[in-house]
Design a protein that fits this description.
Length: about 120
């Protein structure tokens, strides 16, 4: 079994405190160490939190497409990076420009014009 170093610190700490903990090297070892119910409940909780993040990202990208959410959720798999909200380069650029100050936009536009 492999032990992992797990670190944590309080908000007011500058240094992280480390401790070693063995979670097992695979599912069978985890079940043997913690029990099937604990492993299932922890996995379920982690998957739900991850799915909530996918839903928030989807709604943030385009709240008008709420009707399409169920099809996205139904096709989603944990850690499958291919399904979810993907922004085009154009969308990313527009968001970046929108967050700039007027001075930053002016400088950015000058740089763009120089590239054309």
């Amino acid at each position: 079994m492999t032990a992992f170093n797990v670190g944590a610190k309080r908000k007011d700490d500058t240094a992280e405190t480390l401790a070693s903990y063995d979670v097992g090297d695979n599912l069978d070892e985890m079940v043997a160490k913690f029990g099937a119910d604990v492993v299932y409940q922890k996995a379920k909780g982690s998957i739900i939190i991850n799915l909530q993040s996918v839903i928030r990202s989807w709604l943030s990208a385009d709240p008008t497409k709420r009707g399409e959410l169920q099809s996205i959720v139904s096709a989603w798999k944990p850690d499958a990076r291919t399904i979810g909200v993907k922004k085009s380069a154009d969308e990313k650029a527009r968001e970046a420009v929108a967050s700039m100050t007027p001075e930053q936009r002016k400088e950015f536009l000058a740089q763009l014009r120089a590239m054309i």
